[in-house]
Amino acid sequence: MSDHVAATPERRVLSSFTDYTGAQTAVDRLADAGFPVEHTSIVGHGVRIVEQVTGRMTRGRAAGYGAASGAWFGLLIGLILGLLVPFGSWLVLLLWGLVLGAVWGAVFGFAGHALTGGRRDFSSVQGLEAERWDVMVDAEHLGRAQSLLSSTPPTPAA
Fold first, then answer.
1. Cα distance between residue 75 and residue 78, in whole Å
2. How many degrees, rounded to 5, is the angle at CA 48 between CA 47 and CA 50?
3. pTM for this structure?
4. pLDDT by residue (tens digit) across 84-127?
5. What secondary structure, in 3-state letters, does 50-115 show?
6. CA angle (39, 44, 46) in 5-degree steps
7. Rounded CA gap, 43 and 16, in Å?
8. Both ends of the chain: CA-CA distance in Å?
9. Nearest alpha-carbon partner for 123 in 52, 69, 39, 55
């Protein structure tokens, strides 16, 4: 057995940004210029998780979300099973899958929320925020990355 441990290459800061989109755009510009982006990383400093509350979660709303996801699952199952039967029956299986999936999804959504006992009566979306985002590049590739980034015009945001 070998005691050899792969050395991590030294990384240097290529540029810093106040938002992630800026760092992502810089790496994308490097990729578009043919730079080997596997030698880069985006590092957030002062990172925190932010949970944005999007609304109140009621049993009815939980049942609605469950019905929607159950309908998609039922549609998928109906589609797969429908491949094994003639066309007329295929449409019936598809519709039954949709309806049964929605019903069972609503039941499980309602029951799942009711079982929380009111401990989480809201819906939310989590995201990461950072004070600063650094684009880091392996030290041996820093010069090329700097020249590519300074010579490549920024692409307009979509």
1. 5
2. 140
3. 0.59
4. 887 778 888 889 999 999 999 999 999 999 998 878 889 899 99
5. EEEEEEECCHHHHHHHHHHHHHHHHHHHHHHHHCCCCHHHHHHHHHHHHHHHHHHHHHHHHHHHHC
6. 155
7. 9
8. 52
9. 55
SS3 122: strand
And the tokens for 44?
Answer: 């957030």
Name residue, tokens 């998780």: 49
Can you tell me the distance from the alpha carbon of 152 to that of 39, in angstroms, rounded to the nearest whole number?
Answer: 18
Using DSSP, how many helices (H) and how many strands (E) does the chain show? 4, 5
Tokens of 131: 């004070």
The size of the chain, in residues, is: 158
- pLDDT tens string 57-89: 999 999 999 999 999 999 999 988 888 887 778
